[in-house]
């Protein structure tokens, strides 16, 4: 027999010994669980391999009958699928409750295997804990198996390998194919609750590889996001799904994803809302489990846009895995109603993003009562031509109170000067919360407060720090003296966040109205011996007086120690209902005079005593819902009240001042200025109801007769002079013409 024949017989004899003694090998493995059986097949010929392959079914029968080690985790290795050799089902896996092992583990696995492992957890994201586990799947063929190079774990697998699918079967997305020897560098996290592992060993190959051992659980940080998802990771979050004052969350990708993955998060609020987003937790780590390696910068990025779409001109912040520092608990605030967040990965990952973040977002009402002032946090402007009246209050966006600085919000009310406007502001309610200091001196104490300043009324600022103003409870009413008014809200920084951030109770609420339209004329009447208000000052069509209800408000100044007689000389009201059209006079906040269209004649005049005019002025209101259709003339005269002697006669000692009080009103214990007598206006009280008054003909004739004689004489003299000059001129002209006539004859 030649050498080759002897070698083949020897090999066949060795193979026969292995097959015949497999029972002994099984019992040996059972007793020594960690011993590996190695066969020297370096001298096997090709025919020998074929002979070896023909015994695979016998191998399966033996391994299937006895198992790789019945003592090793017998109740944690899943349930065998009936009629299969190595298909197993694992349900409701928890950490350390499901162990996925290759047949024969920790000993060598047989050849020509096709095993499937169906893995399931109750919660996403299912995770194969194989990081740092021994992994030994190869099946490469070498002339000397003892000298085969160890191939590291990778995806180039011509012989034995495992495939991992992100789902229940092989129709699910393929996460990856793996083979090699060594420590598996990372775990694998699925996107749901199921993963299928497929293990295939080639029909021929050495018995050198021990296979794998996986632990199954789920990633513990799974949180459901309140939004709608399109695909794997394109989300839309809406304020409709978030309760007022509450926050919602979304997380970075915690499961595997392909290279080139792009995820988007559109956070969209209602019109008038803004978005706040911050990261309670943020970590940046190197890309540890890339699917496709990348050597450049920014293999993964996270970009925040102040927009509803990617817009490079509106980037708020960009994070990169290679150089960015995490930014925790920093508020990113949109300028509009939307914010867009985009994650891009060039590398992909088997176990989640290198940019790990926990993002929280909420929405704030950023609507305004007036027009926002640029470059300010909360200032607003109210203009008469935009909205003549309305509501206003503390900022609806309570995010402004989340600050370490004092909050100052200024509300400016303005109208053009030529319109003679006034601003009527009413503070209806306040809800100031705890202050560390008591409100004793409102303007100077460091407390939350409202200050109302009238630039046309110096030194009369109104300050409100509780529900009482000037010893009176709210509402507080302030009327400007001119066409502008400024209100400012002050909130102390020491408790701004604690008291007002995310509070649904406003600090204050109020109303405003631009009153005294242009047809009312000037707002302030200076002190004088007499005066009048004529309404309308201009024709209504000039300033659009027909378009809005009228509320005129005049301030009539009164000289010290003077009484005031008021009389409605002319009145033509178009509405008879006093609630729709009325003329009123207030003295020191007390209404003393009210006239409607139906008021009798005797109710259309009033004398106000100087002792009642404590503020040096009185206020006249005219309110009408029929603007431009009514007219009136209100006159007034300053009087000096004269005391009476014990016998009832008038004491005239006060008449000594030159010109001030030289005319005593008939039947009245009062006098008026001399210049008011016979000026064409009835200035004495009750003048319309008596024959003797300051405009009586006999009084005026007696006072003016002497003056009339002097006037006549002056006119006569002036007329005579004019006639004389005319005669002289005519004579001179005739004298010049006469010589010329003589020479001509």
Automatic annotation (TrEMBL):
InterPro entries: CUB_dom, LDrepeatLR_classA_rpt, Non-NMDA_GluR_Accessory, Sperma_CUB_dom_sf. It comes from the Eukaryota. The chain crosses the membrane at residues 710-732. CDD domains: CUB. GO terms for cellular component: plasma membrane. Gene3D superfamilies: Spermadhesin, CUB domain (2.60.120.290). PANTHER family: CUB DOMAIN-CONTAINING PROTEIN (PTHR47537:SF1), CUBILIN (PTHR47537). This is Cubilin isoform X2. It comes from Hyalella azteca (Amphipod).
């Amino acid at each position: 027999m030649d050498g080759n024949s002897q070698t083949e017989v020897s090999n066949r004899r060795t193979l026969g010994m292995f097959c015949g003694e497999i029972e002994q090998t099984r019992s040996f493995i059972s007793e020594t669980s960690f011993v590996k059986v190695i066969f020297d097949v370096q001298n096997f010929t090709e025919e020998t391999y074929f002979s070896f392959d023909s015994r695979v079914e016998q191998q399966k029968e033996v391994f299937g009958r006895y198992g790789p080690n019945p003592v090793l985790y017998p109740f944690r290795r899943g349930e065998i699928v009936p009629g299969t050799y190595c298909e197993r089902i694992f349900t409701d896996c928890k950490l350390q409750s499901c162990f996925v092992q290759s047949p024969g583990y920790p000993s060598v696995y047989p050849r020509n295997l096709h095993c499937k492992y169906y893995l399931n957890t109750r919660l996403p994201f299912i995770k194969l804990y194989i990081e740092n586990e021994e992994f030994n799947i190869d099946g490469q063929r070498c002339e000397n198996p003892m000298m085969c190079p160890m191939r590291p774990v990778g995806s180039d697998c011509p012989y034995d390998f495992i495939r991992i699918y992100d789902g229940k079967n092989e129709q699910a997305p393929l996460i990856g194919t793996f083979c090699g020897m060594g420590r598996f560098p990372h775990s694998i996290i699925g996107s749901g609750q199921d993963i299928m592992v497929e293990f295939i060993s080639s029909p021929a190959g050495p018995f050198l590889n021990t296979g794998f051992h996986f632990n199954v659980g789920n990633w513990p940080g799974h949180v459901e996001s309140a939004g709608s998802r399109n695909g794997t990771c394109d989300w839309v979050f809406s304020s409709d799904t978030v309760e007022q004052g509450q926050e919602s969350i979304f997380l970075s990708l915690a499961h595997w994803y392909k290279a080139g993955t792009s995820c988007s998060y559109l956070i969209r609020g209602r019109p008038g809302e803004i978005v706040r987003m911050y990261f309670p937790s943020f970590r940046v780590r190197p890309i540890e489990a890339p699917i496709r390696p990348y050597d450049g910068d920014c293999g993964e990025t996270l970009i925040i846009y102040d927009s509803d779409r990617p817009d490079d001109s509106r980037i708020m912040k960009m994070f990169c895995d290679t150089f960015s520092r995490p930014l925790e608990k920093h508020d990113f605030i949109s300028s509009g109603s939307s914010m867009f967040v985009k994650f891009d990965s060039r590398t992909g990952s088997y176990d989640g993003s290198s940019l790990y973040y926990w993002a929280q977002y909420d929405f704030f009402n950023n609507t305004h009562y007036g027009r926002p002032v640029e470059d300010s946090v909360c200032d607003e402007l109210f203009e008469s031509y935009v909205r003549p009246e309305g509501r206003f209050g503390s900022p609806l966006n309570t995010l402004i109170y989340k600050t370490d600085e004092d909050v100052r919000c200024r509300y400016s009310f303005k109208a053009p000067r030529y319109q003679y406007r006034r601003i009527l502001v009413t503070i209806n309610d306040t809800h100031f919360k705890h202050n560390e200091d008591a409100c004793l001196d409102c303007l100077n104490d460091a407390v939350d407060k409202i200050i109302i300043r009238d630039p046309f009324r110096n030194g009369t600022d109104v300050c409100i720090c509780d529900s009482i103003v000037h010893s009176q409870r709210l509402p507080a009413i302030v009327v400007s003296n001119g066409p502008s008014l400024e209100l400012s809200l002050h909130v102390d920084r020491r408790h701004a966040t604690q008291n007002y951030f995310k509070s649904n109770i406003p600090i204050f609420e109020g109303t405003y109205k631009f009153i005294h339209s242009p047809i009312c004329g000037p707002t302030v009447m200076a002190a004088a011996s007499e005066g009048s208000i004529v309404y309308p000052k201009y024709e209504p069509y000039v300033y659009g007086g027909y378009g809005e209800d009228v509320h005129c408000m005049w301030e009539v100044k009164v000289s010290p120690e003077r009484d005031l007689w008021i009389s409605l000389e002319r009145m033509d009201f178009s509405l008879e209902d006093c609630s729709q059209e009325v003329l009123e006079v207030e003295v020191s906040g007390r209404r003393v005079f009210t006239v409607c269209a139906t008021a009798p004649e005797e109710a259309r005049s009033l004398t106000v005593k100087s002792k009642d005019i404590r503020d040096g002025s009185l206020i006249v209101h005219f309110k009408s819902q029929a603007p431009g259709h009514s007219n009136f003339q209100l006159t007034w005269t300053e009087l000096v009240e004269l005391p009476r002697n014990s016998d009832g006669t008038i004491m005239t000692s006060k008449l000594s001042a030159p010109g001030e009080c030289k005319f005593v009103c008939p039947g009245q214990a009062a006098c008026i200025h001399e210049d008011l007598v016979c000026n064409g206006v009835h200035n004495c009280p009750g003048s319309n109801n008596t024959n003797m008054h300051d405009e009586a003909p006999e009084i005026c004739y007696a006072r003016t007769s002497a003056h009339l004689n002097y006037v006549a004489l002056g006119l006569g003299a002036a007329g005579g002079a004019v006639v004389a000059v005319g005669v002289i001129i005519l004579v001179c002209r005739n004298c010049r013409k006469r010589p010329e006539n003589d020479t001509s004859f």
